[in-house]
Amino acid sequence: xxxxxxxxxxxxxxxxxxxxxxxxxxxxxxxxxxxxxxxxxxxxxxxxxxxxxxxxxxxxxxxxxxxxxxxxxxxxxxxxxxxxxxxxxxxxxxxxxxxxxxxxxxxxxxxxxxxxxxxxxxxxxxxxxxxxxxxxxxxxxxxxxxxxxxxxxxxxxxxxxxxxxxxxxxxxxxxxxxxxxxxxxxxxxxxxxxxxxxxxxxxxxxxxxxxxxxxxxxxxxxxxxxxxxxxxxxxxxxxxxxxxxxxxxxxxxxxxxxxxxxxxxxxxxxxxxxxxxxxxxxxxxxxxxxxxxxxxxxxxxxxxxxxxxxxxxxxxxxxxxxxxxxxxxxxxxxxxxxxxxxxxxxxxxxxxxxxxxxxxxxxxxxxxxxxxxxxxxxxxxxxxxxxxxxxxxxxxxxxxxxxxxxxxxxxxxxxxxxxxxxxxxxxxxxxxxxxxxxxxxxxxxxxxxxxxxxxxxxxxxxxxxxxxxxxxxxxxxxxxxxxxxxxxxxx
Length: 491
Known about the structure:
Layout: H1 4-7, E1 14-15, E2 26-28, E3 38-42, H2 44-49, H3 54-57, H4 60-67, E4 78-80, E5 83-86, E6 89-92, E7 98-105, E8 111-117, E9 132-133, H5 134-149, E10 156-168, E11 172-182, H6 188-197, H7 200-214, H8 224-246, E12 248-249, E13 271-272, H9 296-315, H10 319-330, H11 333-348, H12 358-371, H13 376-384, H14 397-411, H15 417-427, H16 435-448, H17 452-461, H18 469-472
Antiparallel strand pairs: 1-7, 2-4, 3-10, 5-6, 7-8, 8-11, 9-11, 10-11, 12-13
Helix pairs in contact: 5-16, 5-17, 6-9, 7-9, 8-9, 8-10, 8-11, 9-10, 12-14, 16-17
């Protein structure tokens, strides 16, 4: 076995604060080693920010850590327990194919979870094999890094390794492990688990830990647990608004996939909308559209209500009073979300301030986009660069009338049209992870072992507001198909 002093050249600096929580919240367990791991992609920028040695990460020792074959000094691998409402039904869950190695402390003193996804069976695998296949791990790497570049809070992807082993899904597929980086993996489902199976003291310990880790400013407030609820509501309102603004559809907004930190997590059946339609669903398992694009704000509010329920014993000794406190806090979510969404949509249209009829101006545009099946991202790009003929709305009477109203609205601002167009450039991405482009990258990797398609795609995705010539080709739509695009969890 490699000596610890050699492993430490990589720069791992682990702490394990989560392991100090009530033991029912986790199981300490090592990853299951794999046959012949091979590094296929490393996020060098992220690695450097974490205080890691990029060259050392690419050695056999570095790859062995990513594969779960080698545990670095200070790490304490564990699987987290949590519960959750999956499509509205409450159940016991947990990390069925993931392990938290520990928390990397960066040179700047920041703390990030380092998690291996696809590292083998755990006590929470529920009959699964605990492994992951290459395609979904590539999908999560691409989309999570694209989301970060778009300015959307998200977990990050540090590396993907292939395992040299096959995993059985519908067919034999190449196995892979993703190394995921997150502010934490505390979820609404974590609180649901402790609320259902733990004690009041367990709940208080978890809440205090969460406050210390994510909301240290709570030290100065009179009611820290109400503050916790309010801050999680604020973060989720902002997050969901950002999703809507770029046409992102999460696909599986179960309570175990809503983080307390306000980061996007779990990129299983996610996808980006092409033609604007609030009813858009991509996930194969979402048969009734519970998590459709237009439903995401309401589902977020529902999930937050489940979070508030777990905090009731901490909000007040009297349950009726606790419920009233929680309801008052939750009532703010629609206003916060609407404000975040409205200001974001205004920026996409070059608006620096708000006027009474701005929302109707925005809604009229969206109604037209739905009517004519206009591409969401490309319509805003056409408006940004005055390439009006590039949108399916061009030439219609509705659009002509709307465009005149929009121009009059811009004229009423103190800022110039040049200022407005710059705001729009900064608010409307030139590129998103188009579903067919993601599939091209996955297919090249799975069938031919060709990762260059993924690498070229990532290069342009990581600067979405550059509006460079290289990005133009990636804005094209897929060829028409009689089969709707469907995504899967990859489990």
